[in-house]
Amino acid sequence: MIEIKDLQTGFSAKTVSRSLSLKIESGSFVCLIGPNGCGKTTLLRTIAGLLPAKKGDIFINGKSLRQYSSKELARNIAYLPQVREIPDITVDTLVSHGRFPYLGFSRKLGRTDHEKIKDALELSNAGRFAEKRLKELSGGERQQAYLAMTIAQDTPILLLDEPGTYLDISNRFSVMETALKLNRKGITVLMTLHDLSEAMWFSPMVCLMDTCGSLRFSGTPQALYDSGLLQEIFDVSVAKTDFKKSYYVFLPKGDV
After folding, report:
1. If DSSP codes are grouped into helix, strand and coil, which group holds residue 47?
2. How far apart are alpha carbons 128 and 133 in whole angstroms?
3. Phi and psi at residue 115, in whole multiples of 5°?
4. Residue 243: phi, psi to the nearest 5?
5. Do residues 216 and 225 touch, judged by C-beta distance below 8 A?
6. What DSSP line would sit under 156-194, residue for residue?
7. Phi, psi (5° rounding) for residue 112?
8. Could you give the dihedral angle defined by the CA atoms of residues 236, 241, 247 and 252, in that order, rounded to the nearest 10 degrees?
9. Which residue among 3, 8, 100, 160 is buried most deeply as judged by most CB within 10 Å?
10. 157-183 burial, b if ≥16 CB within 10 A, otherwise e?
11. Rounded to an integer, what distance in angstroms lies between the CA atom of residue 27 and that of residue 253?
């Protein structure tokens, strides 16, 4: 379980968000949405332990984030950033880095590690280019490779910052389905998404931040639609239609 209590995030003298409080039960699938610059990425990085909290605290399974060693935290939380460097290594070497929190001083991979790497490559659909170097890949293929590394880390909590970055629509849907498969195995998934329609379609729970970095809503997509906050915060019109389940279409304000 992730529990955020009166959290203030930011960098040195700059505060991004204030008084964030949220509880995410183990095994949940949650999409975090909000306007550009509202602090979604900063919040994920703070939960991942990459940024210190300016105020308040984060608890993972009842234990303060401050009490975790870096290795222990890496065995509990895997984080896929939106932007990252491109080292000159092969995809399978990159994915093997996800196993580092479990290795001893020799950094030698064992049978379990190789099995986790293989499974991650298959789940992420990156196995077809496992032997290629990252710099030879398209942006979408690199994103799948980094997703494989994150999956190989084999943690109970998965933080994904815009996992569909660089991907075409078919592969974006594939990434979402992969995240849902992991969630069905009991993994807690918290991700940021800019595509509101995808967030509302795939996620059973949505959290909405506003331009001031405040958490304005946490609940089901239907309840968020009914609240009117989408129209208020994004300044758009929202239309609802039904396929197999409710689907939400976002249009310029006044076009519904």
Report:
1. helix
2. 12
3. -65, -40
4. -110, -115
5. no
6. SEEEEESTTTT--HHHHHHHHHHHHHHHHTT-EEEEE-S
7. -60, -40
8. -20
9. 160
10. bbbbbbbbbebeeebbebbbebbeebb
11. 36
CB 27 within 8 A of CB 186: yes
Question: Average pLDDT by consecutive 10-residue portion of the chain (256 residues)?
Answer: 95 88 97 95 96 95 95 96 90 96 86 96 94 93 94 97 89 91 96 94 95 95 95 92 78 72
Residues 6+ apart with CB under 8 A from 82: 41, 161, 162, 165, 192
- Of 4, 36, 41, 35, nearest to 19 by C-alpha is 4
Give the HSE-up count for residue 114: Cα atoms under 13 Å, Cβ half-sphere: 4
User: Encoding tokens for residue 5?
Assistant: 């209590």
pTM: 0.93
Type of residue found at 146 = Y
Q: Which two tokens stand for residue 117?
A: 């790497």
- Which burial class, exposed, middle or buried, applies to 213 when counting CB atoms under 10 A from its CB (0-12, 13-18, 19+)? buried
Which tokens hold the place of 162?
Answer: 């815009």
Token pair recorded at residue 86:
């491109």
d(CA 100, CA 92): 13
Do residues 59 and 107 make contact, with C-beta atoms less than 8 angstroms apart?
Answer: no
On whether the CB atoms of residues 9 and 182 are closer than 8 A, the answer is: no
Q: Which residue has the tokens 């064992």?
A: 110
